[in-house]
């Protein structure tokens, strides 16, 4: 159910204040320490951020897609690493269970995820299965009332903190494609499950990715998401489909922040006896950035509203992810340019955003994968 | 113990305000409004008293236009139990607000009123004191600590050059200074629940209070723009200027 305007504004206002008063001042520190301070995580819990998308019946806020995107736009105003703290509980980590889980699974897990007491990760990617997610090799072979799981998952966000993993594994080795894959909700303490050390990354320090290894892991049969094997790939694709709008909104929030930074800088910094913002070549960079960020915002809210109205927005979601992630890359590049040498120096924080936003074109489907999804759907439509 | 907390809707503290061109006041068109920051501190203090089991009910009161209801909602989201909006589109001076609050105190019989020490729009710093005088209650202004026990309030006050600790008998009016506490962010679930908490609406006429202004604003102007400073070459020059131009050292 949609919120009334007053409540929605109050919600967004509170998040805006929290982001600007509490998170923005810590951006440098978090990047330096590669860790979001524990007291900030606690404040995020108390604020209710872990439960944005989980329905009120299970202890969350139950925001609709438009509201969630508006929140994500606010969260984008600061380092993306902060959002990652609860991002997997709101999105990819929990959504498989929310969409296709059994009622008993939801009743047990969702309240724990909504409060942030437990962290959920999403484990699809493998060393040999990235964009070609349908080729996952991790196997889960039924053995009485258990599945025996073997394989390695790679680059799994929040794996070091997760208590539970949404895992896509092959339950039927005879079916090579997507149809042999099932989705599981696997507790970390399951015997045979282990997590690797966090990888060193280009940016988004403070958010961690690790391998998750299954070595004859004895996964209870009730951990299967839903009642049927062989639909796990569909579950994963639905989860990513939905997540694209949220990620697009985060991209756009970061772009808006960078536009604010570069505009202020352009108004202050003087060369040749005048503010650099008065040079039309600088104005062109500001204007192009503003135009693109505005276009992204409009696309995202349009797609989100359509999704809330029950439409299938798979293509629109990919359009948003493709445009917004590429757009924020261009905006970050211009921000470095407007700042000149200062843009390249760590103290100003612009180069940090430049590295942070590079990820958005890669995860939850690369730009090429988005293009493929859109293009294929277009051709399918004329051929049918 | 009931606690009454007046909350004022003011221009958000982040807004760069502009004086109207006719110099009659500050331009409020399309300006973001929020709860007066000192009132957030008083709401926080009242809610903490309730959480500690000292207070039983926290009532947030606002005097202002219909939109002041949003300010009350913020207080409800922070943990106040219910609200009262005294609706008026007129500008109400501190004495008017104090008189309105006196009527509400009469109707609600709280043991404690916690107000902000001042509102950041007009910086009057009068309402709490006037209310205490009208009620004949004890007052403890500029509080940086508050302890309630045995029908008394022990209050540490921020005064020039230090802290003063006083004990006042209840009922009392306390005004909150900046260091009394750090107000919480209302949690998102509580923001959603606040919608269901009751807000009573009253009018000034109903309360029978005369809020006619006693003061006339002659003119509102922007502060003079700061002039650029000068760079001095040597310490000797600096000392000379401080002595002979600024006159700050003898
Ligand atoms: C920081 C980070 C966090 C991540 N978090 C998670 C997570 O939580 N859970 C999870 O499961 N995964 C996660 N991933 C994995 C991420 O989703 C994959 O890295 C991504 O899907 C790309 O897969 P890949 O790295 O194997 O690249 P590849 O698939 O090998 O792609 C390499 C290049 O080839 C291109 N390419 C591939 N196929 C095609 C094609 N058909 N047509 C045209 N071009 C193509 C790609 O676009 C890319 O440019 C994360 C990755 C990173 C870096």
What does this structure look like?
The complex is a heterodimer of chains A (384) and B (250). Chain A has 384 residues and is α+β, with helices and mostly antiparallel strands. Chain A folds into three domains: 5-114, Orthogonal Bundle (Butyryl-Coa Dehydrogenase, subunit A, domain 1); 120-229, Butyryl-CoA Dehydrogenase, subunit A, domain 2 (Beta Barrel), CATH 2.40.110.10; 234-383, Butyryl-CoA Dehydrogenase, subunit A, domain 3. In chain A, 52% of the residues lie in helices and 14% in strands. Chain A is built from 13 helices and nine strands. In chain A, strands 2-3-7-6 form a four-stranded antiparallel sheet, with no helix packed on it. The longest helix of chain A has 37 residues, at 232-268. Chain B has a single domain, classed as Rossmann fold. Chain B has helices at residues 37-51, 68-78, 94-108, 127-135, 188-194, 204-207, 235-246, and strands at 2-6, 9-11, 33-35, 57-64, 82-87, 112-116, 138-149, 152-159, 162-169, 172-176, 199-203. Chain B is globular and about 65 Å long. The interface between A and B is medium-sized, with 20 and 15 residues.
Tell me the span between the first and last alpha carbons of chain A. Answer: 35 Å
Low-confidence stretches of chain B: none
Task: Write down the domain tally of chain A.
Answer: 3
The secondary structure category of chain B is: alpha/beta
Trace the largest sheet of chain B across and list its strands.
9-8-7-10-6-1-4-5-11
Tally of separate domains of chain B? 1
The CATH architecture of the largest domain in chain A: Up-down Bundle
Order of helices and strands of chain A: HHHHHHHEEEEEEEHEEHHHHH
Strand order of the largest sheet of chain A: 2-3-7-6
* Most residues in contact: chain pair: A-B, 20 and 15 residues
Uncertain runs of chain A: none
Helix content of chain A: 40-55%
Please report the total strand number of chain A as a whole number: 9
């Amino acid at each position: 159910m949609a919120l009334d305007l007053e409540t929605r504004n109050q919600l967004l206002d509170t998040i805006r204040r929290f982001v600007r008063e509490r998170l923005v001042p810590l951006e440098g520190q978090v990047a330096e320490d590669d860790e979001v301070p524990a007291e900030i995580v606690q404040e995020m819990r108390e604020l209710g951020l872990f439960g944005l998308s989980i329905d009120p019946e299970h202890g969350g806020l139950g925001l609709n897609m438009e509201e969630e995107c508006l929140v994500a736009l606010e969260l984008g105003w600061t380092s993306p690493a902060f959002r990652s703290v609860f991002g997997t509980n709101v999105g990819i980590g929990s959504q498989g269970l929310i969409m296709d889980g059994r009622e008993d699974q939801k009743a047990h897990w969702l309240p724990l995820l909504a409060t942030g007491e437990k962290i959920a990760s999403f484990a699809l990617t493998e060393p040999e299965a990235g964009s070609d997610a349908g080729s996952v090799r991790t196997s889960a072979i039924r053995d009485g009332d258990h599945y025996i799981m073997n394989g390695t998952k790679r680059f799994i966000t929040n794996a070091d903190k997760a208590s539970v993993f949404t895992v896509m594994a092959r339950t039927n080795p005879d079916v090579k494609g997507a149809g042999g894959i099932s989705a599981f909700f696997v507790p970390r303490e399951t015997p045979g499950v282990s997590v690797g050390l966090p990888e060193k990354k280009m940016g988004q320090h403070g958010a961690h990715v690790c391998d998750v290894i299954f070595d004859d892991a004895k996964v209870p049969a009730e951990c299967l998401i839903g009642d049927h094997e062989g639909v796990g790939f569909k579950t994963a694709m639905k989860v990513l489909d939905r997540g694209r709008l949220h990620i697009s909104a985060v991209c756009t929030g970061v772009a808006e922040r960078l536009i604010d930074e570069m505009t202020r800088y352009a108004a202050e910094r003087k060369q040749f006896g005048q503010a650099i913002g008065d040079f039309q070549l600088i104005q062109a960079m500001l204007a192009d950035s503003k135009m693109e960020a505005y276009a992204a915002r409009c696309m995202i809210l349009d797609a989100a509203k359509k999704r809330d109205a029950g439409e299938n927005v798979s293509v629109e979601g990919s359009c948003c992810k493709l445009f917004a992630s590429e757009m924020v890359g261009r905006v970050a590049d211009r921000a470095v340019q407007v700042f000149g040498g200062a843009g390249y120096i760590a103290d100003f924080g612009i180069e940090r955003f430049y590295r942070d936003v590079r990820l958005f074109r890669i995860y939850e489907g690369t730009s090429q994968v988005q293009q493929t999804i859109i293009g294929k759907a277009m051709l399918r439509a004329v051929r049918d | 113990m009931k606690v009454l907390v007046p909350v004022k809707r003011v221009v958000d503290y982040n807004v760069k305000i502009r004086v109207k061109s006719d110099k009659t006041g500050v331009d409020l068109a399309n300006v973001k409004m929020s709860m007066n920051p000192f009132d957030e501190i008083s709401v926080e203090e009242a809610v903490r008293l309730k959480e500690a089991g000292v207070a039983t009910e926290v009532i947030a009161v606002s005097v202002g236009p219909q939109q002041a209801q949003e300010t009350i909602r913020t207080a409800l989201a922070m943990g106040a139990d219910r609200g009262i909006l005294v609706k008026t589109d007129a500008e109400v001076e501190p004495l008017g607000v104090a008189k309105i609050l006196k009527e509400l105190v009469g109707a609600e019989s709280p043991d404690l009123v916690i107000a902000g020490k001042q509102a950041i729009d007009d910086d009057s710093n009068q309402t709490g004191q006037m209310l205490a005088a009208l009620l004949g209650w004890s007052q403890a202004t500029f509080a940086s600590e508050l302890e309630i026990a045995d029908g008394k309030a022990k209050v540490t006050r921020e005064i020039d050059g230090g802290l003063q600790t006083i004990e006042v008998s209840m009922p009392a009016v306390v005004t909150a200074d900046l260091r009394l506490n750090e107000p919480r962010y209302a949690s998102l679930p509580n923001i959603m629940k606040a919608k269901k908490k009751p807000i009573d609406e009253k009018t000034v006429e109903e309360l029978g209070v005369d809020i006619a202004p006693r003061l006339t604003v002659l003119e509102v102007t922007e502060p003079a723009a700061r002039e650029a400073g000068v760079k001095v070459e040597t310490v000797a020059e600096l000392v000379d200027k401080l002595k002979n131009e600024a006159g700050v050292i003898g």
